[in-house]
Specification:
Blueprint lengths: L8 E4 L7 H12 L5 E5 L10 E3 L6 H4 L4 E5 L16 H16 L5 E4 L4 H8 L6 H9 L5 E5 L4 E4 L9 H4 L2 H17 L7 E5 L14 H15 L3 E6 L7 H4 L4 E4 L2 H11 L5 E5 L5 E4 L16 H14 L17
Helix pairs in contact: 1-11, 3-4, 7-8
């Protein structure tokens, strides 16, 4: 039985017709009493490959975890239909997220781990108007600016711009945006990853980081001035660096996180290094939120073959971050030690 004084992690149910219910059971099977978490959802939607225990309060999670997956029940109409979202369940999926946030905000849970949702299913079934989890969480928390980080044992990356066309990146990449991304990243590394003086590597936008202006001037005119300003305030920043040489092992040893200029520049290296172990972390919220770095996987839902590794790592990282006990070096992210 865990002896930690931390409250359990809240886990929202995600899309019932996806692999979320299977991931919840597999995570409990892997973690048992090692790390207390409580799944918020309709008990009837669980596959039943492991036992579950219905609780009335998250505080019961640690004491019942030896007997089964702790479940905070949230009634939803109709059965789970793997691979086929049910519109009537969409409102319940949204409520699961909101309830998880409320539990963390009131101190009943220490962090939130969200299982994958289908934005289309929520929009069609519940009028969900947000682009995704992150924006909804920001609205619930009243956060003005949030940042997506992908974290693994080998690498932490933050894309400055995310889901936009590559042709739109130069116009979207402003000095104000980059400065905000860097500040939020630095603050989170200090307060939630327990790194006293974070070292942040910053990628250039262009090949060879512009090569002195011969391959583009964004580095000279935009990125360098921002870095110089923040360095003058005491931030430890490296770059702008050529993106093709900053992700090998020796280079990664020199920094704690990398801020990249666009989606693929950040996500290709981490998904190459840790395809099934990456964790999505939302920085800038007043609480800890992690998520597995994949979607609902409707195509394999209900087959019992979903890989739970990213979910397990998301729970472990949420637990460490909630205790402000994340290791200064990312090498122990996979080690299974806890606060």
């Amino acid at each position: 039985m865990t002896t930690s004084r931390l409250a359990p992690v809240a886990m929202s149910c995600g899309e019932p017709s996806g692999i979320g219910p299977e991931l919840a059971e597999a995570a409990w099977q892997a973690l048992g009493t090692e790390l207390p978490f409580v799944w918020i959802g309709e008990p009837a939607h669980l596959p039943g490959t492991v036992p579950h225990v219905v609780v009335e309060d998250p505080s019961e999670a640690a004491s019942v975890a030896a007997r089964g997956l702790p479940v905070l029940p949230l009634a939803m109409p109709g059965p789970r239909v793997p691979g086929v979202p049910q519109p009537a369940q969409a409102a319940g999926v949204v409520e699961s997220i909101a309830r998880g946030v409320a539990l963390v905000q009131e101190g009943a849970c220490s962090a939130l781990c969200t299982l994958p949702i289908s934005k289309q299913a929520l929009a069609e079934g519940a009028g969900f108007a947000y682009p995704g989890h992150t924006e909804y969480l920001a609205a619930l928390a009243g956060a003005d600016e949030v940042v997506m980080m992908l974290a693994s044992a080998a690498l932490r990356v933050v894309p400055a711009t995310i889901h936009i066309a590559l042709s739109e990146v130069p116009a979207a990449l402003t000095a104000e945006l980059l400065e905000k991304r860097l500040r939020i990243t630095r603050d989170a590394l200090v307060t939630q990853f327990a790194i006293a003086v974070p070292r942040i590597a910053v990628a250039g936008l262009n090949p060879h980081a512009g090569e002195g202006g011969r391959m583009g001037r964004e580095e000279i005119e935009l990125i360098v001035p921002v870095l110089d300003k923040l360095r003058a305030e005491g931030m430890s920043l490296i770059g702008p660096l050529p993106a093709d040489t900053m992700f090998h092992a020796e280079a990664r040893a020199g920094y704690d996180a990398a801020v990249c200029m666009y989606h693929d520049q950040a996500l290709i290296p981490i998904k190459t290094l840790a395809f099934d172990r990456g964790v999505n972390v939302t920085l800038g919220l007043p609480f800890v939120r992690t998520s597995p770095d994949h979607g609902t996987a409707f195509g394999i839902a209900g087959q019992g073959i979903a890989n739970p590794r990213s979910t397990i790592e998301a729970l472990r990282l949420a637990w460490r971050m909630a205790g402000s006990a994340a290791p200064a070096s990312p090498e122990t992210l996979d080690a299974g030690t806890h606060a």
